[in-house]
Design a protein that fits this description.
506 residues; 15 helices; ten-stranded mixed sheet
Length: 506
C-alpha cells in the first residue's frame, strides 16, 4: 500500500493504492470461497472473456440528461452512449446516498439486508461481492474511489486487485484524476479481461465546475454577503433551505448542470480510450448514478433525507455492441440491486438466484421480449431521516419510521410527487403498506446476513469525515443499532407499523 499526499489536480489528499489484492483483517467466509470456486469455473482455458466497465456518477439525477428530457445540451457523450445502449428509464437507487447504494450495486442486496447503511458497519465476510466473483473468474479487477463514502473500511475493496482511493474535500475537481487512473489501468491490461469500476464525484455538492463549464448554464445569482452556497450548510440541521430565493436555487442548479457537462466529457475520455484500444466491442459498459439531488422540490437541498424521485431516480445505460440491444428504452421498474445478477449472466459467470434480491435483466437486454411488471423497488434511508418505501413506474409509497406518516403518490398524474394521496385513498395506502411490510420481512433462503460492526474509534473517524460532507445521523439513532440482524429487522418492522405475524423471532 502506498500513501501519498499529492495529486495531479492539487489540494490536500490522502491517496492509497492497494495492489495486489489483499485482505486485512476481514477474510472471506466459507460462502464467499464457495462462490469464488464456482466463478473460477466460468470459462475454460483459452476462452475469450468480455470485459466490464462500470461508471457511477455521484448525485446525477435521471431527469438532468438531455436524452432523458432536459432541454439543455448537458450530456452529449452520454446521449450518444444512450443511442448505442439499452436505456432503463425507470431505474432507481435503493438509497439516497452513496455508501448503501453502491454496496447494493456490489452485492445485489438491499441496504436492509447487507446492513452497510451508516458509518458503523462493514460488509459481512460471508457476502460475495461483484468484484470477488469477477476476480475468481479470471478477471483483472480495479476500482477508482475518490470519496470517503467508498472507503475500504466498509468492504468496498473486496475483490479488487487495484483499489485506488483518495479522500478529498468538496471544492476540488477529481474527474480527470479518476479517468486518468482508469485509462492507465486499461492500457496496462489491454490484453486481459478486466472488471473496472470508476466513481466520478464532481457532480456531488459543493458544485464547483471549472471554467467554462461554470458559466455555461449560469442563472440566478450566487451567495451574497452573509449568505452561503455551501450545501453542507444549506442541507444541514438547523438551516431552513426552503428559505432560499428562487434566484439562489437557480444559481446552484446551474452550477450543478455545469458539473454534469464537465463529467460527461470525462466519461467521453474513457469511452474514447476503449475505442483507441480496440476494446469497445468486447466490453460491457454500464453508466449509472448512486443517487440523485434535490433542489427544493420537497423543501430540502442535496440528498440523503428523502425517497422522492429527485433523490432516488437515476440513469442506467448498458452497452455491449452486438450483444445488448442498441437504442432501446425499457420502462420497467429496475434498480441498482438488479445489476449484479444481470452482469454475471451477461458474461457467463455462474450464480444462484437465491444469493441476490435483485432480478436478472440479462434476458431483457439480449432480446426483444415484452416488458413485464417487475416487483416494486424497495427504498430506504437511515441517514438524517428514517424512511422506507416502494416505487413502481406508476406509484410511489413511503413511511416515516419516526413519525409514522405515510405518503402515496400517483406518478402518472403527479410525477413531481406533490399531492399525497394516503388520506384520500386509504384502501390503496393500506395495500401499499402491506406490500412494504412483506418486502421488509423478506429474508434470503440462507437466513439473515450477519452484521460486522466497525471498531468504535474507526466509526468516529469515519463519522467525522462524513460530517464534513454534510452527512449526519438521524436524531436519536445512536445506540439504537443492533448487532443481531434478526433483532434489527424486527425493530424496522415495528417502526414501520407492520403486523405482528410478520415480525421475525428473536
Amino acid at each position: 500500500m502506498v500513501d501519498c499526499g499529492c495529486s495531479p489536480w492539487g489540494g490536500n489528499y490522502n491517496i492509497r493504492i492497494v495492489t495486489p489484492f489483499t485482505r486485512s483483517g476481514r477474510g472471506s467466509g466459507s460462502l464467499g470461497l464457495l462462490i469464488l470456486l464456482l466463478a473460477a469455473a466460468a470459462c475454460g482455458p483459452g476462452e475469450q472473456l468480455p470485459s466490464v466497465v462500470i461508471v457511477t456518477i455521484d448525485s446525477l439525477r435521471a431527469d438532468h440528461l438531455h436524452h432523458a428530457g432536459d432541454p439543455r445540451d448537458l450530456s452529449p457523450r452520454l446521449d450518444a452512449l444512450a443511442a448505442q445502449a439499452t436505456r432503463f428509464s425507470q431505474a432507481g437507487a435503493s438509497a439516497p446516498w452513496t455508501t448503501p447504494s453502491v454496496m447494493t450495486l456490489f452485492t445485489g442486496l438491499t441496504p436492509g439486508t447487507h446492513h452497510v447503511d451508516l458509518n458503523d458497519r462493514a460488509l459481512a465476510a460471508t457476502v460475495p461481492t461483484l468484484a470477488e466473483l469477477f476476480r475468481g473468474a479470471g478477471y483483472r479487477t480495479a476500482a477508482i474511489m475518490p470519496a470517503l463514502t467508498l472507503a475500504d473500511h466498509f468492504g468496498f475493496d473486496r475483490g479488487f486487485d487495484d483499489f485506488i482511493f483518495a479522500t478529498q474535500g468538496h471544492s476540488n475537481v477529481s474527474g480527470p484524476w479518476s479517468i486518468n487512473h482508469a485509462i492507465e489501468f486499461l492500457r496496462d491490461h489491454r490484453d486481459e479481461p478486466i472488471f473496472l469500476y470508476v466513481h466520478l464525484w464532481d457532480v456531488h455538492y459543493n458544485y464547483n465546475p471549472p471554467v467554462p463549464h461554470s458559466i455555461r448554464f449560469q442563472a440566478g445569482r450566487p451567495a451574497g454577503p452573509g449568505e452561503t452556497d455551501d450545501i453542507t450548510v444549506l442541507a444541514g440541521p438547523g438551516h431552513d433551505a426552503a428559505s432560499l430565493s428562487p434566484e439562489r436555487v437557480a444559481w446552484l442548479e446551474g452550477q450543478y448542470a455545469g458539473e454534469i457537462l464537465f463529467t460527461d466529457e470525462q466519461v467521453g475520455r474513457l469511452l474514447d480510450e476503449l475505442d483507441r484500444l480496440g476494446r469497445t466491442d468486447d466490453t460491457v459498459v454500464v453508466v449509472t448514478a448512486d443517487h440523485g439531488e434535490a433542489f427544493l422540490e420537497h423543501r430540502v437541498m442535496g440528498h440523503t433525507v428523502h425517497l422522492y424521485d429527485e433523490m432516488t431516480h437515476v440513469p442506467l445505460l448498458v452497452r455491449w455492441p452486438g450483444q445488448v440491444m442498441a437504442g432501446r428504452i425499457v420502462d420497467e421498474q429496475v434498480g441498482l440491486v438488479d445489476m449484479m445478477p444481470t452482469l454475471l449472466d451477461l458474461v457467463g459467470i455462474p450464480f444462484a438466484s437465491q444469493w441476490f434480491e435483485g432480478r436478472n435483466l440479462a434476458p431483457l437486454l439480449r432480446s426483444k421480449r415484452p416488458e413485464e411488471e417487475g416487483p416494486p423497488l424497495l427504498l430506504g434511508t437511515s441517514r438524517q431521516a428514517m424512511k422506507r418505501g416502494l416505487r413502481t413506474p406508476s406509484w410511489s409509497y413511503q413511511v416515516d419510521l419516526v413519525t409514522g406518516e405515510d405518503e402515496l403518490y400517483d406518478l402518472v398524474a403527479d410525477p413531481g410527487q406533490q399531492e399525497n394521496l394516503a388520506i384520500a385513498l386509504p384502501r390503496e395506502a393500506a395495500t401499499w403498506h402491506r406490500r412494504l411490510c412483506k418486502r421488509l420481512a423478506h429474508r434470503l433462503p440462507g437466513g439473515e446476513v450477519g452484521i460486522d460492526p466497525l471498531p468504535a474509534d474507526l466509526q468516529e473517524i469515519l463519522a467525522a469525515g462524513l460530517r464534513t460532507l454534510g452527512y449526519v445521523s438521524p436524531a436519536g439513532s445512536k445506540g439504537g443499532r443492533q448487532g443481531d440482524p434478526a433483532v434489527e429487522r424486527q425493530r424496522i418492522l415495528k417502526a414501520t407499523g407492520c403486523p405482528v405475524e410478520l415480525l421475525p423471532g428473536p
